[in-house]
Amino acid sequence: MEPTPIKREIIDSLIAQLGIDDFAKATIREVKQVAAMAEQQSGVGFIKMEMGIPGLPAAQVGVDAQIKALQGGIAHAYPDIQGLPELKRQASRFVKAFINIDIDANGCIPVCGSMQGTFASFLTCSQADRNKDTILFIDPGFPVQKMQLQVLGLKYETFDVYDYRGDKLAPKIESYLTKGNVCAIVYSNPNNPSWVCLTESELQAIGELATRYDAIVMEDLAYFAMDFRQDLGQPYQPPYQPSVAHYTDNYILLISGSKAFSYAGERIGVTCISDKLFFRHYDDLANRYEGLPFGLVFSTRMLYALSSGTSHSAQYAMAEMMRAAADGEYNFRNEVKTYGDRARRLKDIFTRHGFHIVYDRDLDRPVADGFYFTIGYPGMTSGQLARELMYYGVSAICLITTGSEQEGLRVCTSFIEDHQYEWLEERMRIFETNNPLIS
Fold it and tell me: What are the start-end ranges of the E strands in 308-368?
């Protein structure tokens, strides 16, 4: 056995000190805390892959617009609960330019990041029909969304998409919808953490089922246009960002400024509600909220109660970023394709040292390289692998925390620096030596 870069007793002591009984279930912030404390105690730099925080500078076009708005005195004024009119208009243009769908500006509502958008959407969807009180997750997914449902006291069902791609997806979803209690279907595309991308035929199946069973699809587009296998960054020309919006009127799109524009710190996003859904009247919502349609319940009741609006100056930033992108002045995809380059290099190192990619394919083609990918190691459970890698100064979270049923870890590429590839290569050489594969 070769010595590990960080002494095992340091990691073991810190895990015990923090009261983490099962490292497979350690949260992102718990893993982050162990890594930070171990780095301080050992003096050995960690390769941190657990946090999904943008690792690129914020889009300058947004920063400039926000500064200009602040210097113009906008900070003194409450924002309109429906959103800055210019942002609503530019969001409508943006989805037309990059998804090729038409959504009226009325249905484009700024939120404090997609996190607030999902929270308000969960509230609105779950109250629309008293007989439909359950959210269906196509997992793996963003763990905090389930925490939101825990806070709200709402029910949910979930399944791991790993074994249900292609023609198997529709029957699996329908097995839940036939119960008659599902109000909304949630997934991310590209997917956090697996980076699989649902195909047009899969999205069509989801859309048709949503229409047939009158469920609302919440499509989380946090990693907008970040399937780097094709150029999705050219406005008003194909290929477009795939979306269920082409196949049903029952949809909510959650578009975040955090990853595509690296604008995470200002907590800005836009929730885009289809025209038909925005103006739809549900009896249960109308009785509870003075006859208001779905979209106005979302904005004038849910959002108003949560935060009475979204950062005024950040709305100017988001409006300008969306405008510049739709006008072809700012290619946001070129800014973030660095993540794909990093993923490709990291995958190469891991796989040369015995690891495998857990979610490795989108049906007939390899999964894209992007913000996240997944790794496993033969003979190790998720918890064992996550803990073992900590001894080598590598931190990542277990797939079990994302709703996955597969053994492995989520790796985030956002914080990788050029000098760390050499670190990882050497550390994984030692890891492979100390954990030989059984042939």
Answer: 356-357, 361-362, 365-366
